[in-house]
Write a structure and sequence with these properties.
With 114 residues, this protein is mainly alpha-helical. The protein has one domain. It has six helices and no strands.
């Protein structure tokens, strides 16, 4: 579990650093580039579309884990928009709250207790 936690910290630090450099150099103008690549039907667009679906799955899992409550839907939207930057922190918090019980991390406390 400690190795996984270290991996999550590494993901967060690497992605936060990389994002800071990109935003500093290019600004926050992500969406026209992201969706423009998809519209071109090339490999960068294929990767972006695949990534978009992974973000959707992440957001749906987070909302489902919280039983589609108001907070769960909000967290799902954050997962969809925040990607691995959000998910790395979210998983670290869940692991700490669940004392490393991965069933609880994946399913949520209410589903494990049932």
């Amino acid at each position: 579990m400690n190795l996984f936690r270290a991996f999550l910290v590494l993901i967060f630090l690497a992605l936060a650093s990389y994002t800071a450099v990109v935003v500093g150099d290019h600004g926050m103008n992500l969406f026209p580039i992201f969706f423009g690549d998809i519209a071109k039907l090339g490999w960068p667009g294929q990767f972006n579309l695949d990534f978009l679906f992974m973000l959707a799955l992440s957001g749906l899992w987070v909302a489902w884990r919280h039983q589609f409550s108001g907070a769960g839907i909000l967290l799902g939207v954050l997962a969809f928009n925040g990607g691995a930057l959000f998910l790395s922190v979210y998983l670290m918090v869940l692991i700490a709250q669940a004392d490393g019980d991965m069933r609880e991390v994946l399913l949520g406390k209410s589903r494990v207790a049932a």
